[in-house]
Design brief:
alpha+beta; 2 helices; about 40% strand; Trna Endonuclease, Chain: A, domain 1; 5-stranded mixed sheet
Length: about 120
């Protein structure tokens, strides 16, 4: 049986392969910032896309996408800003979630584009 970390790594690999098939260009995986990480950073046409991947076993009580809380969203937005500054990238940004449900050797993927937006204050 896969541990929590192994399940997450499997979900990220499934998500990466899914994105490559959709012709995304993967720039970084597991980019570290402030002791946390951004799962996948990619280019999709004119967008710089930050993708949070959540993986669960089929039958789990929580839908994977529901694990992207407001607190997690805030971190992703802050991390995206840090990445843009560090890499000096000038592209429009999109924040996506990929939900991966694992059922035996099969999986179900849900890709939510523009899953959330930065809050302007």
């Amino acid at each position: 049986m896969a541990t929590h970390n192994e399940l997450g790594e499997l979900g990220e690999e499934i998500a990466t392969q899914f994105l490559l098939k959709k012709k995304y260009k993967i720039l970084d995986r597991n980019w570290r910032w402030r002791k946390k990480e951004l799962d996948i950073i990619a280019i999709d046409k004119e967008f710089l896309v930050f993708i949070e991947v959540k993986t669960r076993k089929f039958g789990s009580l929580e839908n994977p996408k529901d694990a992207v809380t407001k607190k997690k969203q805030k971190f992703i937005i802050e991390g995206a800003n840090a990445y843009i500054e560090a890499k000096n990238i000038e592209k429009e940004v999109r924040l996506d979630i990929i939900s991966v449900l694992i059922k035996g050797k099969k999986h179900i993927i849900e890709h939510i584009e523009d899953a959330f937006y930065p809050i302007v204050r």
